[in-house]
Amino acid sequence: MASNVNPTVRRRRLGQELRKLREAKNMTAEQVAERLLVSQSKISRLENGRRSISQRDVRDLCGVYEVEDERMVDSLMQMAKDSRQQGWWHAFGDIPYSVYIGLETDAESLRMYEPQIIPGLLQTHEYAEAVIAGALPESTPADIEKRVQVRTRRQERIRDEERPLRLWAVIDEGALHRIVGSRRLMVQQLEHLLEQSQLPHVTVQVMPFAMGAHPGISGQYSILEFPDASDSSVVYIEGVTSDLYLEKTQDVGKYSVMYEHLRAQALNVDQTREFISEMAKKHAQG
């Protein structure tokens, strides 16, 4: 969907506006919840964009915050209406990480560290199938194929000539050694990774084993940045049963500094391409 009607981003922007109105009245989320006879967690979820918000919710909140500007109320009501539209990913049914997909769809740049596998946006169809089948052993072939289709659709941002996603990926050496599917499949995947790394808006670096301990040792994470200045950056950490989204300035700042250290310690672009080529040859030789 076009970025200006992305429901995930609309909910997030609307939540930010509602938080500003609450803070301007010096009210806590608990106080607002008491006034509206709802739970405090509902107010928090509305403000962080994790929950769908109705026009009635907006009207009630504007009443509590004593918003007298009807144009502002109408604008917020329209944002609530837009936020309830469905993104392209809803056509695939229940996707556990749909919030992340909505953010990624609207993001201008994405910085990621991946210690275990080749990042999803840079995977081949066959590699993605093997990764998903291995990670979710109880999934049916239909479920696996649905997830692969979603992953393939997400990759369109890489190929988008008008609004390509600026991707910077630091990949641990272990992801290149790990044989996913077969050695033949790994050769194809690494050759594809090399091709993608040649795109002007894609940067790939390998973190070699020889570097030892480094700032990414605690695990995978991604930092999303958006074209609209009003949208704060988000750190995304994927989990097995739930995901973590960090939006506080100090949290994003810490992860951004960590990522700068990662980029500095990883192999540079030319060294990385040479390393990937050598790994592809090793897999080809068996």
Automatic annotation (TrEMBL):
SMART domains: HTH_XRE (SM00530). Residues 18-71 form the HTH cro/C1-type domain. InterPro entries: Cro/C1-type_HTH, DUF5753, Lambda_DNA-bd_dom_sf. It comes from the Bacteria. This is Helix-turn-helix domain-containing protein. It comes from Streptomyces bikiniensis.
